[in-house]
From TrEMBL:
Belongs to the glycosyl hydrolase 32 family. This is beta-fructofuranosidase. SMART domains: Glyco_32. InterPro entries: GH32_Enzymes, Glyco_hydro_32, Glyco_hydro_32_N, Glyco_hydro_beta-prop_sf. Keywords: Glycosidase, Hydrolase. The keyword Hydrolase applies. Residues 31-340 form the Glycosyl hydrolase family 32 N-terminal domain. Its EC number is 3.2.1.26. The lineage of its organism: Eukaryota, Fungi, Dikarya, Ascomycota, Pezizomycotina. It comes from Sporothrix stenoceras.
């Protein structure tokens, strides 16, 4: 949802993706309790855009049994402190939820204090008097550290000691807390500033007193601070750490895996993904077990708002819209893959394009040139209506030589092919582009979301009079996955909620917030004949070759929120 022109966010009604009375949704904290999903998440105050007002967050909760129909709490679960001396007066930030030995729900979260703490971050422990977390008593002080932990705690910076993830580690019969932090400069003289990010480990027998482990649980020496971490195992003998990074390379949510138990060592997967689950705009993803199937997990995340102000390129903001839950599983080699969850897919109902019949198949392409097939504009009637365009892709058989595509693998003879999104009459917009890897004979492709407005050198910008082309933070190549297998029987799914798109293919996802296009429409009331409406054009393209797009379907579902 775009902010208002006066730099103030508009008032929004509650939907699953955005809570009423708050400007944006942020970091998710999902928790499965008695077959009900409790989705806690951060929410920024209304009428805020930039730091520090926007990050003075509260904790909000909504609940669901099927991941489609949601009920929202009428008031925040945790709100920032009112006094400058309160450790969370500048924001109640990310944390986790756990059931204690007392049978009650406990929240561990990050307190942020600017007035008296200079931006200090501490870990706070809020306790409920019941299992459901009906109401939480906020703490007055940070968590208690064991007296023997002072030297270990000094290994880490106090200005980045946050995002606690707490769970009961059955292998060691105690609670573990994984904390996003950074090695302190005083304890690590000469260590580069930008690569000291790590995950600290704390342990406790009772959730009250915590022992800080001296050595980091994970310290890759390539990150400023690994945000929003979590740990889990899927019953396959492996342990996984998932975390998010806000700086390139590999910005977004990633994972590392251990074959040797929860203490590691943790390594990036060797499956061509580098551990990337999506791009940088699907952020701070966290999960909980899937109801009835602990071998899978349900992941939640958010996509950034983009603020259009005096800066022509727009500014990406902290917080935005919650994304639909995704289902995660491990394949045979232990790599993690994502897909839409079953409840979401089961709720979809077929619809038609406005103004034309949706084709069941589109075959296009010419050797040496780019060919395009436009679909009609798809109208999205409401913010909480989500549409899914699904299709399969096939190579066009060369009948003269008798060479036909295989039964499952896709072998298109084309330089690139895929989808055009939000494009104009000059085909300026965005592409979801597939290109063969190693000639495509093994059915492997790279897939990338790219824009046709790449930044120019100053000389060329002035010469062509295109000084208005923005220098995008994400670059002209917005998201890429380098080793995607295309199966002619497995549909690709483009999920779209207004200006946010998600492409699901081969267990990988590309998420982005695309700016809507505007076009003139003729009003029938005779008052305004040239009204501007937002449109979201979609088309297929093939460059230098031929491809068939088959089994094309358009479905949608409305997500309810009370």
């Amino acid at each position: 949802m775009a902010p208002a022109a006066n730099n103030v966010e508009p008032m929004v009604s509650a939907t699953y993706v955005r809570p009423a009375g708050f400007a944006a949704a942020g970091d998710t904290i999902p928790f499965l309790l008695d077959n009900t999903y409790h989705l806690f998440h951060l929410a920024s105050p209304l009428n805020t855009v930039y730091h520090p007002p926007r990050v003075r967050c509260s904790w909000i909760r909504q609940r669901s049994k099927d991941l489609v129909h949601w009920t929202r709490d009428t008031k925040p679960v945790i709100s920032p402190g009112a006094q400058d001396s309160d450790p969370d007066c500048s924001g109640a930030w990310t944390g986790s939820v756990v059931l204690g030995r007392d049978g009650n729900m406990h929240i561990f979260y990050t307190g942020y204090n600017l007035p008296e703490g200079g931006g200090r971050q501490v870990i706070l422990h809020a306790v409920s008097s019941d299992r459901e977390g009906t109401e939480f008593e906020k703490p007055l002080q940070p968590i208690q550290l064991d007296s023997a932990s002072a030297n270990s705690y000094a290994q880490f910076e106090a200005t980045d000691f946050r995002d606690p993830y707490v769970f009961f580690n059955e292998e060691e019969n105690c609670y573990w807390m994984v904390v996003a932090t950074r090695l302190a400069a005083e304890s690590n003289p000469g260590a580069p500033y930008w690569t000291r990010g790590c995950l600290a480990l704390l342990t406790s027998a009772d959730l009250d007193v915590w022992m800080v482990q001296r050595e980091p649980l994970y310290a890759p020496n390539n990150i400023l601070c690994p945000e929003c971490p979590e740990m889990f195992t899927l019953g396959n003998g492996k342990w996984y750490i998932v975390y998010s990074r806000f700086s390139a390379p590999d910005a977004g949510t990633l994972y590392v895996v251990s074959d040797s138990g929860p203490r590691g060592p943790y390594r990036s997967p060797r499956d061509g993904t580098g551990g990337r689950l999506d791009g940088r705009r699907w952020y701070a993803a966290k999960s909980c077990p899937k109801r009835g199937d602990p071998s899978k997990r349900i992941f939640f995340a958010w996509v950034h708002d983009r603020h259009q102000d005096a800066d022509i390129s727009g500014k990406w903001l902290w917080g935005g819209s919650l994304m639909q839950p995704r289902e995660l599983r491990a394949n045979a080699n232990g790599s993690l893959v994502l897909a839409p969850n079953d409840s979401f897919l089961g709720s979809l109902r077929d619809v038609q394009l406005s103004g034309e019949t949706l084709p069941a198949e589109v075959t296009l392409g010419t050797v040496g040139v780019q060919s395009v097939h436009r679909l009609s504009v798809v109208d999205l009637p409401a913010d909480d209506t989500i549409q899914v365009l699904s299709f399969t892709m096939h190579g066009v058989p060369d009948m003269s030589s008798g060479n036909k595509s295989g039964c499952h693998n896709v072998h298109p003879d084309a330089k690139s092919f895929g989808l055009l999104l939000n494009f104009d009459d000059d085909l300026r917009g965005y592409k979801l582009s597939f290109a063969p890897v190693g000639g495509g004979s093994a059915g492997l492709f790279s897939v990338a979301l790219v824009t046709d407005q790449p930044p120019l050198d100053d000389f060329w910008a002035m010469l062509t009079k295109h000084t208005d082309i923005p220098n995008l933070v994400d670059g002209p190549e917005l998201v890429r996955h380098g080793a995607v297998h295309l199966d002619s029987e497995e549909p690709l799914r483009l999920v779209r909620n207004q200006d946010v798109i998600e492409l699901f293919v081969d267990g990988k996802v590309i998420t982005y917030r695309l700016p809507a296009r505007e076009q003139k429409v003729n009003e029938t009331d005779g008052v305004n004949r040239h009204a501007m409406v937002k449109v979201y054009p979609v088309g297929f393209f093939v460059e230098d070759g031929e491809v068939s797009f088959k089994d094309i379907r358009l479905s949608q579902v409305t997500i309810t929120d009370k």
